[in-house]
Amino acid sequence: MTQDIRDLVSDTCDLLGFGEPSHGDPAFGRFRNEAFARLAERGFRSFALETDRVAAFVVDDFVRDGVGTLDAAMSEGFSHGFGAFDANRELVAWMRQYNADRPAAERLAFHGIDAPLEFTAASPRRDLEYVRDYLGLELDLGSLVGQDERWSRMEAVTDPAASPGDTAEARQLRVIADDMLTALYAGAPELIASTSRATWFRAKAHVTSGLGLLRYHRQAAQHIGESERWSRLSATRDALMAQNLLDIRDIEGRRGPTMVSAANIHLQMNVSEMSMAGMDLTWFGTGAIIASVSGERYTFVAGSLDPSEGPRVEAPPQQNRIDA
């Protein structure tokens, strides 16, 4: 790696958006891994990836505390097929090795920022049942959720008429999830005292994921023009990733900065635009949201793959913060 990522990161940056030109390219993935290793020398203490935040707890437990195995972390701790990428496996193995002989405060953490959604979206059952059990509530969620397949099949996202997202049951689940979030905060002193701060934050991540899935399914159910519908779906997903990143920074703020790796279109500060299946999509991505909220604390570098020079990142001159 000839390019030094540290030259692109200011002293005020506590969240670096490391944009990927495409997912799964092995050369760029290893370039990203080397960049994070150099940032770890500078005090970065966490790595975040465009993958399911809840599933990623399996990876974090492995890299920080050696819980489970590398194979289990890769098979259970990633969504969107990202556990199959060699560069991700190499990163997880390196993070575990880095942490092995270090005190807890200095260990690197692994986070996901996404949820199990895109062209399909999972059932909210996993997340809502987890929080129900954490709060000790007596709730029959099964009758409202129904069969998971009715949520997770592709038609539930691609065809508004097949979506369960705006049914009476879905609306009731959103109210329940919102009440769960309120209960988490209202009971935080007792809940954290009886469990731990980390356990409370994991419960919050679950309810955030459940609400995000329900919001995504509701957008999928809207009978509007397809360009607008998919723009809203993209905006809903990126809003969830931004919320997760802000929560991660709340957790990691005392330990050090975070590097987040995701597609350029998610992390850039400009408006995101994409042409897909004859549609023109426009929305504010995660980076635009974070830059507006966090200001100078967020830095974005765009990744590219040059056939002659190989992987590179640069701070795009056209990237303007969307400030009031």
Automatic annotation (TrEMBL):
InterPro entries: Emycin_Estase (IPR007815), Hydrolase/PRTase-associated (IPR052036). Signal peptide: none annotated. Gene3D superfamilies: EreA-like, domain 2. GO terms for biological process: response to antibiotic. It holds the Pfam family Erythro_esteras. This is Erythromycin esterase family protein. It comes from Glycomyces buryatensis.
